[in-house]
Amino acid sequence: MTTTERPRPAGYDDHRPFWDGAAAGRLVVQRCTQCGAVRWPPRILCGACLSPEVEWVEATPTGSLFTWTVIHHTTLAGFKDDPPYAVGLVEVTVAGGLVRMLGGIRGCAPSELQVGMALRAQFEVVDDGALVNWVLVGDDERQET
Ligand SMILES: [Zn+2]
């Protein structure tokens, strides 16, 4: 566990299951119980059918890099030692579809990133929960999946 000055989730009730899942080392997303569409980030209505009926489903915590940006300068104290670092959109397949999840990409120089790289979620345990980052899947892990 680390204590960090990084910003924390805003605490919206609609997001609580996602952050509770992360704290337990699980990646969970919303799925509409009316039409089956999956979505992330959490929202109160389905973007496909506007239904408020939702369930939370667990996703395999692996995905592929869709795109990213590199942060070179920051004014946030919790990130002051990190630049340059990458924040990416990671495509994650879930029963019912695909979601793109935003998160920091760790353990890899931004110059090494490529579209389509295999990533897995890394749950960074902090004093009051966990943050979701992404790390490269090693060659040995890729063969197992
Ligand atoms: Zn729906």
Walk me through this protein's architecture.
- It is a single chain.
- This protein is mainly β and 145 residues long.
- The chain has one domain (13-144).
- It is 10% helix and 42% strand.
- The chain has 2 helices and 8 strands, in the order αββββββββα.
- It has a 5-stranded mixed β-barrel with strand order 4-5-6-8-7. A 3-stranded antiparallel beta sheet has the order 2-1-3, with helices on one face.
- It starts with 15 loop residues before the first helix and ends with a helix.
- The mean pLDDT is 88.
- The structure holds zinc ion (ZN).
- Zinc ion (ZN) binds at residues 32, 34-35, 37, 46, 48-49, 51.
Spans of at least 5 consecutive residues whose pLDDT stays below 50 are none
Strand content: 35-45%
**Quantity of strands, as a count:** 8
Spatial strand arrangement across the major sheet: 4-5-6-8-7
Rg (CA only): 16 Å
The count of domains is 1
Order of helices and strands: HEEEEEEEEH
- Could you give the distance between the termini? 28 Å
Average of per-residue pLDDT values: 88
Task: Please identify the structural class as seen in this structure.
Answer: mainly beta
Q: Give the cofactors and ligands.
A: zinc ion
- The proportion of residues forming helix, as a percent range, comes to under 10%
How many helices does DSSP assign? Answer: 2
Shape: globular
Task: Summarize the entry for a quick read.
The protein is mainly β and 145 residues long. The chain has one domain. It has helices at 16-23, 139-144; strands at residues 27-32, 38-39, 54-59, 62-71, 85-94, 97-106, 118-126, 129-136.
